Amino acid sequence: MHLAPDDAEKIREFPHRELLITDQRVQEGWKRSTILGYNAAVKKFKVFKTSRDVHVYDLPITALDVYSFVAWAGRGTGNNRAGKINTTTLTHYLHTLKAWHTFHDAEYLYRTEKRVKLMLKGSSRQDALIPARPGKSPVLISDLAELFRTLSGRGPEAEAVKDLAVVAFWGMARMAELTYTSSSGRINLKKGTTTQDVLNFQNMTTINVHKAKTAKPGEVQVIKLRSINSPLCPVRAIEQRRQATTSDTDSLFGYEGPKGRINLSKRHANQVLAAAWHDLGRPHLTCHSFRVGGATLQHAVGININEIKSLGRWTTNCYKRYVKPLSREEVITSLSILEL
Predict the structure, then answer these.
(1) Mean pLDDT score of the chain, rounded to an integer?
(2) Can you spell out the DSSP letters for 165-220?
(3) Which long-range contacts (CB under 8 A, 24 or more apart) does 266-271 make?
(4) Which residue among 127, 152, 245, 289 is least crowded, i.e. fewest CB within 10 A of its CB?
(5) What GO molecular function terms would the record report (predicted)?
(6) In which element (H, E) is residue 225 found?
(7) What are the tens digits of pLDDT across the range 228-286?
(8) Which of 296, 145, 144, 160 lies closest to 237, judged by CA?
(9) Contact assessment for residue 303 and residue 295, using Cβ atoms and an 8 Å cutoff
(10) pLDDT of residue 71 exceeding 90
């Protein structure tokens, strides 16, 4: 796995030192998203060490380090200060510390696990006393329509983001699946979505996704889109993206700039969307809200559960976390906007 320069900067905490060729080969065994997640955990551990006035340390970490980190980061009786993380996240961070040791060929102290397991049980009981945070808000059709109007006519970048938003909603896609790690340069074969990944059928248009979060190595997942008689039609959005390209190998979600093709990166797309949502008075909506909104609407209008799972590429019942309740009025408003 090749990391773009921006990504290499994002994971500087995880390597902890200059990489050797063998380190790079080990690194290639992990997905990009996995390494970025690992880096966040190692960064948290670094904050912990700094809080102890320790700025230079080496691997392996000690048993006391492990226990103290769990006590510092997780909740305990009378110790629920701001900044504490829940047990699920803390468990992930501990998994990361093990991976960090594996990466550097250092011996992790697995004998700590019995005590850590008990500490985590105690933390989970404290977590249960904290009110659950609300899940991601869904993008409603009314939100999507307002976003569509806001971004229309604002230039090629805004047009690309607008079409991206429409496709992400109806395709229940993750933004990272449709955007690019680098904003310039050619898209490597099977590394990012290009116009040749779009296939048109009689009743459906599909997009091949080569870097889906849940895909096995080499697996291609498929986003399925159906045409609707509305400006918010995802097939129309795809066609507009294809018309904005000059080659089958161009980025599907990109545009021509003064110095050549510009590929929409996730970060850049999020910046454009965040600014638009702020202007529309909906700052609580995020890139993940499109996937939530798509699943929520499909469920609200009575689409079969198995069909929703297929469209969202869910193989388990975790789709339930994405389905939010809609009032009858919200459903009627959505269908009215779509003129369905």
Answers:
(1) 90
(2) HHHHHHTT--HHHHSBS-SSSPPPTTTS-BGGGEEE-SS-EEEEESS-TTPPTT--
(3) 266/175, 266/176, 266/179, 266/180, 268/183, 269/161, 269/164, 269/175, 269/179, 270/175
(4) 152
(5) DNA binding
(6) strand 221-225
(7) 999 999 999 999 999 999 888 899 999 998 888 999 999 999 999 999 999 999 999 99
(8) 160
(9) no
(10) yes
Domains along the chain? 5-127 (no CATH), 141-338 (1.10.443.10)
Task: Work out the number of other CB atoms within 10 angstroms of the CB of residue 240.
Answer: 14
Q: What is the pLDDT of residues 172-192, one digit of tens each?
A: 999 999 999 888 888 877 778
Q: With b meaning 16 or more CB within 10 Å and e meaning fewer, what string describes 292-308?
A: bbbbbbbbbeeeeeeeb
Q: How far is CA 167 from the centre of its chain?
A: 15
CA atoms within 13 A on the CB side of 203: 0
Q: Minimal CA–CA distance to 99: which of 43, 155, 30?
A: 30
* pTM exceeds 0.90 for this model: no
Report whether pLDDT(80) > 50. yes
Spatial neighbors of 43 by CB under 8 A, at least 6 apart, are 13
